[in-house]
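User: Can you help me understand a structure? I only have the sequence.
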Amino acid sequence: MPRPLPHADPDARPQFTLAGEAVHEFYAGTGIRSMAMTGGVLALMHLAKRGPKLWVRHAALDREHGAPYAAGLAEFGVDPAQVILVRTPDVTGALQAGLEGARCHGLGAVMIELWGEAKAYDLTASRRLVLAAKASGIGVFITRMAATPHASAAETRWLIHPAPSRALAARAPGHPLFDLTLLRTRHGREGLRYLVEWDRDVRDLVIHSVVTIADSLIDDRTGIDGTAPLSRAVAALPVNRPGMPGIEPAAQRHS
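Assistant: Let's start by predicting it. Here is the structure, written out as tokens:
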């Protein structure tokens, strides 16, 4: 059973949950980079059942934004030893690998990262993933970079934006904060907007506000407490960008 996220205000409703036997889509909003998008979804995968995670990555993302980085995964509470990473040269291969993973009862969850409009991910492909997730009982998380939301069989569809972090003690940079808008859901209320923080100290997600799109007063130029935002680079990134100083290329490390 999926667990609800803890809320900074215990009396606030509704709760935030993600069905464990379903497909969930996450579209990148303006201003969010691939590595932040990946980190946010990895954090949300804590709501999935325990077990190894299959990460299927369209190789175009490596070329655009860099390769997965173990230290960054650990910052989002993911044990790199529990991640099975599969890179595919095209969308069709990514969907096929994800489908095989979604059929595997031994996994905790599957994440499929797609770049671009990815026309191969159509209604038929999403239905196959939904049926596989229901049969195996695992959650499937699909991230869409540089893509426009379109119809699918997914349980939920989300839009993710970055949000300014809350200052810690002595004005130290805060934890990563994500602005999630629920675009579509088969069960529940659409149009809700959540500010969700990844607390890397306790390795859990915390909701800080829930509003409707119409009533939203969130300003991207200020933090959730109304103060000016601090630097958004507040955690190790889950990807290793080529040419990052002090990081030796993987090929050299294993030579």
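Now, to help you interpret it: The first strand starts at residue 23 and ends at 28. The two ends are 44 Å apart (CA to CA). Let me know which part you'd like to focus on.
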